[in-house]
Amino acid sequence: MNGGAQGRGLRAYALLYLLFLYAPILLLPVFAFNSGTVVAFPLNSFTTEWFGQLWGNATLRRALFNSLTIAFSAAALATLLGMFAARASTRYRFAGKGTALGLIMLPLVLPEIIVGVSLLVVLLAVGIELSILTVIIGHTLICTPYAVAILTTAFASLDQSLEEAAQDLGESRWNAFRLVILPLVMPGILSSMLMSFTISLDEFIIAFFLAGSEPTLPTYIFSQLRFPKSIPMIMALGTVLVATSILLLALAEYFRRRGAARTGQTNSGGFL
Q1: What is one cellular component GO term in this UniProt entry (predicted)?
Q2: Which of 10, 159, 191, 202 is the most exposed place for a label (fewest CB within 10 A)?
């Protein structure tokens, strides 16, 4: 009886926690399809007018282009740097490896406002003008730890004898990596890129400090919150962003699991 009561209590706690966490997100599409301009109950009639306004906004299109450019660039750079770090940490032993990995993963625990202010001071001190490039630098910094975490798992699950066997058969070290290792970790690479893309697309603080006069989607949303008439359109934009983020994260998790299963099958039965 006591165990059953505890189980029901834990389920109730989990349900309340999920409601608290996701209820505000679930309300986004509710008001995005509401014809009223005031975010309040009761709702008015159903409409898609606010979604139509998204495509007619020139500033929004510019912010979207900037965010996509930043996200693609940061995802590619973070994944490339993550591959180097993951490869080194799983394949080689060298002095200071733990310290180096700890410094790489440090942005995971540092407050983003501290990272943003620090980058702003350093970039201005060396004379770099704030632009899309500076945002790409900042987003690469914060996305790299996530890429390293994903790719380290992908590289660590590989059997090193596969690469050694390829080299024994006459392949160079580069060809062994390109023809054997790279295809096996490709799901992890795709997962890393999707995760980094999602993080960069939704990131606000770094972009707020480093974008200068160039708008990004998060900074554009923040700038529009002061205008009550823009709130329904922002709700529609938020709905699109949430749906896109969920889709990208689901794809990233799919590729991560696919990579884990693929390397597991190779390790257990690839040579049988």
Answers
A1: plasma membrane
A2: 10
